[in-house]
Structures are given as structure tokens and as C-alpha cells.
Design brief:
binds adenosine-5'-triphosphate; 4-stranded antiparallel beta sheet; Alpha-Beta Plaits; ATP hydrolysis activity; alpha/beta; 2 domains; Rossmann fold; ABC_transporter-like_ATP-bd; AAA+_ATPase; ATP-binding; P-loop_NTPase
Length: about 350
């Protein structure tokens, strides 16, 4: 059995339908009207111990609703969820012992007491043995630089400090699974990197399963091996991140440094529609190409035939670009890829 098993999962919310203004509110009081919102539609998902999964989708796609059902916060309308072998809603207490959760918009720390006190309270609630608590506190303090604010109450923390404290709180009891809902939202780059490196370390060293929802696609690239995309309540893609990149990261830019100028470099690629080298001075070329149309080695071969190439490097697009295209309906990740590019190289 997988660590997380979800099958045929549905969640329907009943939403009040009100006309605007006071008269709308009064009408609703007299004759309330409701509409059903099918937030999650028949989801099937299996996650194995130690996996790091990015669960992404546009606003309102159903990510948080799924995570809340996995945490036992929301009851499914229909379908099955087993987390660590138990039903998260019916066995909430047992479920809580095996999971940690960070919701970027909310904190689980007590607002008015020092962070250290909150962590001590969580130690008691989760019945964390003192040895484990001290060991984790030592490691987390170092990795997340908690020292600077352990004595402050949660209400006095900056957003970045609050997120670091929340991560420590979520992982204090060594949960086997951690759900992270927008863990880096609104944070500056250095805090983001620190948090990512902490999550990676937990996943690598303790084998903690990570399920991450985020709009920061850099988080995905840095943290996750598997990508699950949900759109309007339906899972539209589930696969390895690396395979997605290999198959769909089409656009690349090759930067070449030359020993001597090439007059009219565009003529070398007239047979490839849309491929136009950009010159950055006489000895530098930047060529943006679709690798399904021509390979990097073919480009280098054509340039070398005209001038000595001193150096070159290739910029690859990130997963961000690919996912953005999926959201915009321009890319279907389930489509088979083209087989060959100019120059004869196999694409995969
Ligand atoms: N408690 C609720 N009552 C009614 N409708 C809800 C409730 N919670 C969520 N919804 C609706 O369910 C749909 C899915 O919401 P959900 O919060 O799961 O999306 P999400 O993918 O997490 O979006 P975001 O990226 O914006 O956080 C949305 O249309 C939302 O309005």
C-alpha cells in the first residue's frame, strides 16, 4: 500500500448565491439560494514514502481543498483517502501524529507567546520525547536560524521569520509526511532559499514525504521530482519533472563566442523558419532555437564551418515556462512528443 492513497475523491461545496447590496442580503435571508461548487472531481493519486511531489494548478483549481482533505480538516463528499494507512478525517488524532502541515497564509503558533514556548507546547501536545525535541531544536535552530526570534511572540515576527518558525513547528514531531501549502509566499530570495534547503534536507536525510502546493514555480524546480497538475478539480497531468523537462522544454538559447566575425550569420539557418541569430558585438552570437526543429550540435556544426568557436553555453528554460503554457491551455503534457530534430539527433 502507498503512503498516501486517494481514489475517486470528490468535494462539493455549497455556496450561497446572493445579489449585491443590502436588498440582496435581505432577499437571501428570506429565500436563501445556493449553488454547488465541485472543487475536486474524482481524483486518484498514489504517493510513496519519501517522494517529493509538487501539486500545482491555477487559482481555484482545488489544491488547498485536496490538501485539507488529506490533513483531515475537510470531510470528502465522496471517495477514499488513506494516509499512513488510516482515514484522515475519521482518525484525526492518529493522522495528526504522522503529518506536519504548513499553510503559508496561516500560522499554527500561538500569537501572544514566545516562539520557544509555542514549540514547547507542541512538544507536549505531540508527546515528543525530550531527546528527540532537543536534537530537532538544535538542528532546526541551525538550519533555519531560529535563534534571532525564539524569544519573540509570533505576532512580532516578520513574514520570513514566521514561516521559518512554522516549518520548525510542523516538523518537530518528525512526521512522515509534510504538506506545504505556499511555504515561500511573499518571502525574499534569501529566506526562500533557506527554506527550500531545509525542506530538501528533511526529505533527503529523514525520508520525509513532501507534498507541496505553490505558485512559485522555482520551488518546484528546486524541491520536487514529481509534478501533479490539477485544473478545475481534475488531475490533468501526473509524471516525473525531469521527463516533462526533457520532453517539453523546447526553446533553448545557445551563446557562442567566436574567434572571428561571421558576415550575415542568419544565412546559415535560412532553412529553419524563425531562427534568427542575434549579434552581441562582432564576436558573440545568441541563437534562440526550438530543439524539436534543430539540435544544438547542428547549430555549432554550421557555425564552426564559418568561424572558430572559442566557447559556448546553452540556456535551458525552467519548468516555469512549461507550466505557464499548460495553464494558458497552450500545451498538453500528455501529447506524444515529436520524434526527430534537424541534424538527425534523437530527441530523448
Ligand atoms: N469553504 C468553501 N466554501 C465554498 N467554496 C469553497 C470553499 N473552499 C474552497 N472553495 C471553492 O473551491 C474551489 C477550489 O478552491 P481551492 O482553495 O481548493 O483552490 P486552490 O487551487 O487552492 O486555489 P489558490 O491557488 O487560489 O489557493 C474554488 O472555486 C473555491 O472558491
Amino acid at each position: 500500500m502507498s503512503q498516501i492513497e486517494v481514489s475517486g475523491l470528490n468535494k462539493v461545496f455549497r455556496q450561497a448565491v446572493k445579489e449585491p447590496g443590502l436588498s440582496g442580503a435581505l432577499k437571501h435571508l428570506i429565500r436563501p439560494q445556493y449553488a454547488d461548487k465541485h472543487a475536486v472531481k474524482g481524483i486518484d493519486l498514489k504517493i510513496e514514502e519519501g517522494e517529493s511531489v509538487a501539486y500545482v494548478g491555477p487559482n481555484g483549481a482545488g489544491k488547498s481543498t485536496t490538501i485539507k482533505m488529506m490533513c483531515g480538516v475537510l470531510v470528502p463528499t465522496s471517495g477514499q483517502i488513506r494516509v499512513n494507512g488510516i482515514d484522515p478525517y475519521r482518525q484525526r488524532m492518529e493522522n495528526a501524529a504522522g503529518i506536519g502541515a504548513v499553510f503559508g497564509q496561516r500560522t499554527q503558533l500561538w500569537w501572544d507567546i514566545p516562539v520557544l514556548e509555542s514549540l514547547n507546547l507542541l512538544k507536549d501536545i505531540y508527546e515528543v520525547p525530550s531527546g528527540d525535541f532537543n536534537r530537532n531544536m538544535k538542528a532546526f535552530t541551525e538550519l533555519l536560524e531560529l535563534d534571532e526570534f525564539l524569544h519573540l511572540s509570533a505576532r512580532k515576527l516578520s513574514l520570513g521569520q514566521r514561516m521559518r518558525a512554522d516549518l520548525a513547528a510542523a516538523l518537530l514531531h518528525d512526521p512522515r509526511i509534510v504538506y506545504l501549502d505556499e511555504p515561500t509566499i511573499g518571502l525574499d530570495v534569501s529566506v526562500k532559499l533557506r527554506i527550500r534547503s531545509f525542506i530538501k534536507q528533511m526529505n533527503r536525510e529523514k525520508g520525509t514525504t513532501v507534498m507541496l502546493t505553490t505558485h512559485d514555480l522555482g520551488d518546484i524546480e528546486d524541491l520536487c521530482e514529481r509534478l501533479v497538475i490539477i485544473d478545475r478539480g481534475v488531475i490533468i497531468f501526473d509524471g516525473r519533472l525531469k521527463e516533462v523537462k526533457d520532453a517539453f522544454a523546447r526553446e533553448r538559447t545557445i551563446h557562442l563566442e567566436l574567434a572571428s566575425p561571421i558576415p550575415d550569420p542568419g544565412r546559415l539557418f535560412r532553412d529553419i523558419p524563425g531562427l534568427a541569430p542575434e549579434e552581441d558585438g562582432p564576436l558573440r552570437l545568441a541563437i534562440c532555437f526550438d530543439r524539436f526543429r534543430i539540435t544544438a550540435s547542428e547549430i555549432v556544426k554550421r557555425v564552426i564551418a564559418c568561424a572558430e568557436v572559442i566557447d559556448f553555453h546553452i540556456d535551458e528554460p525552467g519548468i516555469e515556462q512549461i507550466i505557464r503554457q499548460v495553464y494558458e491551455g497552450k500545451l498538453d503534457l500528455n501529447l506524444p512528443e515529436p520524434a526527430y530534430a534537424a541534424g538527425g539527433d534523437r530527441l530523448k
